[in-house]
Amino acid sequence: MMKFKPNQTRTYDREGFKKRAACLCFRSEQEDEVLLVSSSRYPDQWIVPGGGMEPEEEPGGAAVREVYEEAGVKGKLGLLAIFEQNQDRKHRTYVYVLTVTEILEDWEDSVNIGRKREWFKVEDAIKVLQCHKPVHAEYLEKLKLGCSPANGNSTVPSLPDNNALFVTAAQTSGLPSSIR
Q: Which residues form the Nudix hydrolase domain (predicted)?
C-alpha cells in the first residue's frame, strides 16, 4: 500500500527544487548501526526515512517529523549535508544525523501502511541502498568521510545556511579533501 497524504503541499525553493528532509538514524553516537525503513512504494526495498517539507516548515523540523512518521523514533539531531538530486528530479534534501533515544513500538506508518524498520551495519546499509537508492547510499558514504556533526570530530567547514554542507549529486564523488 502506498502512502498518501491528502493535505500535503509540495514546497520548492527559489531555484525550483523540491524541498526535502531526511535522517540517518543511528542506534548510538558511534554511528555503526543505521535504521532503514521499507519503501512505501516498494515494500521489499529499504530507504533512508525522509520526505517533502511542508510550507513554513524548517528543514530540521521536517526531518524530525518524517523520521517520527516513517520510522517511529525520536532522538538528538545534527546536520550532515544538503544533497541536490539530479536535475531531472529537482530535489534538494537536507540530511540530518539523528542519534536515537526513543523507539516507539507502533508508529504512524507501521499502523497505516505496514512500514517496517530494521537496523543495519553502515557498510551493509550502503550496499542495500546502492541497488535502488544510490543517493541515499551517498548520504552514508559522506558520513563515513567525516562530515557528521554528531561524531565529535566534524570537519565540516563553517558555511552559511545553518552551517550546512551543500553537495550536488554530480559533486559528491569529487569533494575537495578540505571538507571530508
A: 18-144
Amino acid at 152: G
178: which 3 cell numbers? Answer: 578540505
**Segment 118-162, tens digit of pLDDT:** 999 999 999 999 999 999 999 999 888 765 444 333 333 323 333
Range(s) of the domain holding residue 69: 18-147
Residue 69 annotated as catalytic: yes
Is residue 134 in some structural domain?
Answer: yes
> What does the DSSP 8-state code read for residue 47?
E
Backbone angles phi, psi at 50, to 5 degrees: 175, 170
What pTM does this model have?
0.77
Q: Count of domains in the chain?
A: 1
Measured between alpha carbons, how far is residue 131 from residues 12, 85, 92, 136, 171 in Å?
28, 16, 21, 10, 20
